[in-house]
Amino acid sequence: MSETSDTPSRPATGPRERAVPRGIAQMGLWADDVPAAAEWYTRVFGIGPYFVRPLEGAPLYVEFRIGDRGDELGITDRSFASAGAPRAPGGAVTSWHVDDIEAAFERLLSLGAEEYQPVTPRGEGFVTASVVDPFGNVLGLIHSPHYLAVLSEREGGGSASAPRQAGV
Predict the structure, then answer these.
(1) Is the pLDDT assigned to residue 93 strictly greater than 60?
(2) Going by C-beta distance under 8 Å and a sequence separation of 6 or more, which residues neighbour residue 146?
(3) Is a pLDDT exceeding 70 seen at residue 37?
(4) Mean pLDDT of 108-120
(5) How far is CA 154 from CA 8, 9, 51, 138, 147, in A?
(6) Residue range 18-38: mean pLDDT, rounded
(7) Sign of dihedral through CA atoms 97, 28, 34, 52?
(8) Which of 18, 65, 95, 121 could form a disulfide linkage to 70, CB 3.0–4.6 angstroms apart?
(9) Stronger pLDDT, 62 or 13, i.e. the higher one
């Protein structure tokens, strides 16, 4: 079911439906030093990248699959960024659900991230925080009852509160 109607979610069929976003397929980050970023995020997630390019020499791009749905996080060498792309943290923040936001926030800080936004209760069980990774990217954290409810519904109503994978 969609959040705003009683009709089930369905695959896109017509031209208009194919043009509507269906979900976040990848979070992309920039790094001046992709090997160092891959190493840092390997420590954060507890797993290494599943995709690395080029295969020989220093990687210019790596991808991780993480979380309950195998969401994709890609890290690209900053030399491929558009001319004039900002280097300072800011803009949109993608937030990753965590079960224990205080512990996740402190863990990222202990791994070398810097506080961008402190742990902040938002009401009704929602809590957010964000850090700047050592490569200048903002990494958002959220404890979201909505995320857990949607995950539970998709899994047939079971408990969605237990983490499935190490990491953020």
Answers:
(1) yes
(2) 126
(3) yes
(4) 98
(5) 12, 11, 27, 29, 11
(6) 90
(7) positive
(8) 65
(9) 62
% of the chain at pLDDT higher than 90: 71
How far apart CA 162 and CA 42 sit, in angstroms, is: 21
Task: Record the tokens describing residue 120, joined without a space.
Answer: 């902040």
Instruction: Read off the pLDDT of residues 119-130 as tens digits, 9 standing for 90 and up.
Output: 999 999 999 999
d(CA 117, CA 131): 7
Give the pair of three-digit tokens for residue 164: 């499935």
Residue matched to tokens 């080029």 = 54
Output DSSP code: residue 80.
G
Question: Beta-carbon neighbour count of residue 131 at 10 Å?
Answer: 24
Q: What is the DSSP letter of 91?
A: S
Domains contained in the chain, CATH given: 11-84 (3.10.180.10), 88-163 (3.10.180.10)
Provide the residue count of the chain: 168
